Amino acid sequence: MTMTRKLSWFTALLLGTATLAQAALQPSAPEAPRTSAQIPLPKVSQPLDANAPLRDSQLLFNQVAPPPGSMTLRGTEPTSQIEFGVRSDEVVTRALLTLSYRPSPALIPMLSQLKVYLNDELVGLVTVTADQLGKENQTQLPIDPRFIGDFNRVRLELVGHYANVCENPANSTIWMDIGKESKLDLTLQKLPLKNDLSHFPEPFFDARDSRPLQLPMVFSNQPDLVQQRAAGILASWFGSKAQWRGQSFPVLYNQLPKEQHAVVFATNDHRPDFLKDLPPVEKPTVEMVSQPDNPYEKMLLILGRDDNDLLTAVEGIAQGELLLRGDTSTIDSVKMLAPRQAYDAPNWVRTDRRTTFAELTQYQNQLQADGLQPNPISLTLNLPPDLFLVRARGIDMDLIYRYTSPIQQDGSRLAVHLNNQFMQDYPLTPKDTAGQQIMRIPLMQGLQDSNRQLTIPALRLGVVNQLRFSFDYANTFIGGTSDGRCETVTAVGHHVVIDDHSSIDFSGYRHYIEMPSLGAYANAGFPYSRYADLAQTLVLVQPKPANGEVSTMLNALGAIGAQTGYPALRVQMSDDWKQAKDKDADLLMIGSIPQDLQDDKKINLLVNAARSWINMPSRPITAQNVPVSASDRAVESQTGISSRGPMGAIVGFQSPFNDQRSVVALLADSPRGWDLLNNALLDSGKRAAVFGSATIVRESGVTSVRVGDTYFVGHLPWWERLWNLLATHPVWLAICAVVVVILFALMAWRLMRMVSRRRLAELEDDE
Predict the structure, then answer these.
(1) Which of 89, 101, 366, 436 is the right S-S partner for 203, CB 3.0 to 4.6 Å?
(2) Phi, psi (5° rounding) for residue 763?
(3) Which of 207, 175, 184 is nearest to 81 (CA)?
């Protein structure tokens, strides 16, 4: 009884305390409760500056969605997504998703929906109605910008139903097509940034921005050789950061660009007018300041007492970016220690030893996938263009993988593709959850079955190769049966992993390539990229270059940096053609071909001011991989045409000073011609059309020809050269085979005759 009374008093005390606490929290005046739906959501998570500039960005699905740009959502593959980033100096103020979709006519209205997620947060829902089935529909979904971060993922998920009971998720009637016309419209506002180099290379290059990098470079007037070399090294460093995005570096003299960040080169004696009031510097200096007329745009100032200080400042950026901080940093010294070795570019697959898959990954969890049908796992293999694989039996690959086991032996498999060509498959067994295969990527592959043998053409390894692993599961789902029995199974996703310790071996192969090959230059920067720091490259420029020529030089070095992943720290530069005769280097010429070479037979194309002439082969070949004989390359005609239309050109030929060296000339006849040339080298589609020995760039597009003499660069023993020659000339191979057979028959006949004579002589002696 006493215990019961104590509990009653304790309970009353707790209730009274809770009542007093609730009364203390209530406001003095009564107020109606507000639901979450009544609270207006702000457009952004921080206050906006009304004077800050705005820009509109439109992300079309045919550009950002996985190829081919449209999406098909099915019962077993109900999700797909697009990804985008937001720069650190911008914030999204408005986001509108426009979806163009066509649902299957078999879907049940209202029970079927399309869910829209932003960074795994449900932001929209589209309910399928009866009048939408089988028809093209369009809807717009506003997205709360507060959910948008640095890197973002918009995921679409189909919840599809075709029956109220006994559904099979694998039924082919469950689908919805998301059209290429779908898009995401963003309004972005500039943010004021502090002058702080600790975040460098932001905002001049932002990894969140998937657009091609466009970074203007400003000089007080026409730059001399040292300034051009400093700008070229910096351009190649920015190119190594931009990589697949592409890069361009417009050049301005004594003026700033509009609405863009910029890099400005200035010495104490030669400065642009807008930096006249800047105090002189005592050391190589890197400084970040706001532009005079636009506080939202920044300038990266490369300052020095003279041109050599500018070069030191740029080398300090390329080698010590992690040490930059504050608004100003001075470069005390830069020492280049060990030289780079040939073919050691960071972006290339190692050719001196086996390369693990961990070294090839470009982002986290690249070698993993999940889902009812996991997405393929892909790796990019960048190879030196001169890797000689013609006589190779195959490329060894040690493949280690893990996967969730299928329920039963149902034909699930791992399929391996190289450059969209099927190579091999391995069964996914029910019990073994790990597999290890010693695999060889065949260059000449034969597939056999019990009935016939099929010969697959040689798998061509190019400069950039895609290795794809597809885990194909044969999922079994139980629905209704003929006897009226209904069984349902909850689908369980699969998890697959390609182990980091898997490896591929390109070591032991020789380097040997037929030149000129403008395709190797356009896609891999070869032969200059043989050394990642361009230690054996000489760039020849004009004594007083126009801004278009300087921009072309910067774009060329930036593209090579993007392909190698390393800045051109040891590139050499000259404006005197005579110096090229004394240097053992590959030549990259910008502007025009020297007069003493204009009549050389090795030159296939020349653009000089408004007049041009071209050598055409007797049999023009427009395909890159079609073999061309010497007779096809023979010059049939030479045509000269005068025109007002702009034109650019890329010319490749053998160096007149060294048989193992090459020359590539980038030429144009006008400022518009330089624009056409730069745009062609920036566009991946046009760059793929560059091959052979001469490429012409006009308003209509890019045209390449293979004409004139060829030569070989690299080393190949004489017996391998002989085998290569016979492999490409089957008639000679047949003749050699006949000769070998005849010689062998003669030797056998002579041997048998000698044996016969000896036996006859022995018989005569016995008698």
Answers:
(1) 89
(2) -65, -40
(3) 184
Q: How many helices (H) and strands (E) does the chain have?
A: 12, 42
Total Cβ atoms within 10 A of residue 14: 10
Q: Which residues contact 616 (CB under 8 A, 6 or more apart)?
A: 635, 636, 637, 638, 639, 705, 707
Q: pLDDT tens digits, residue range 514-532?
A: 888 899 999 899 999 999 9
Short-list 64, 116, 61, CA closest to 85: 64
Bridge pairing between strands 262-267 and 294-304? parallel
Q: In sequence order, what DSSP letters do the residues of 238-277 get, joined into one string?
A: HHHHHGGG-EE--EEES-PPSSS-EEEEEESSS--GGGTT
Residue 271, both tokens: 């400065």
Do 179 and 102 contact (CB within 8 A), yes or no? yes
Per-residue b/e over 278-290, b at no fewer than 16 CB within 10 Å?
beebeebbbbbee
**Segment holding 679, helix H or strand E:** helix 671-682
pLDDT greater at residue 640 or residue 328: 328
Sign of the Cα pseudo-torsion (235, 462, 627, 714, in order): positive
Residue 13, token pair as written in the block:
């005390």
- Start-to-end Cα distance in the chain: 143
**Distance (Å, whole) CA 571 – CA 225:** 12
Question: Residue 9: which pLDDT band, with cuts at 50, 70 and 90?
Answer: very low
Query: What are the structure tokens assigned to 689, written together?
Result: 């059309």
Please state the φ and ψ torsions of residue 315, each to the nearest 5 degrees: -65, -35
- Report the distance separating Cα 602 and Cα 611, nearest Å: 19
What's the order of all strands across the beta sheet hosting 635-642?
Answer: 605-608, 611-617, 635-642
Q: Tell me which residue has tokens 């910067």.
A: 554
pTM: 0.80
User: In this structure, what token pair is assigned to residue 553?
Assistant: 């030089």
Q: Give the C-alpha separation, 342 to 727, whole Å.
A: 29
Residues 89/190, Cβ–Cβ less than 8 Å: yes
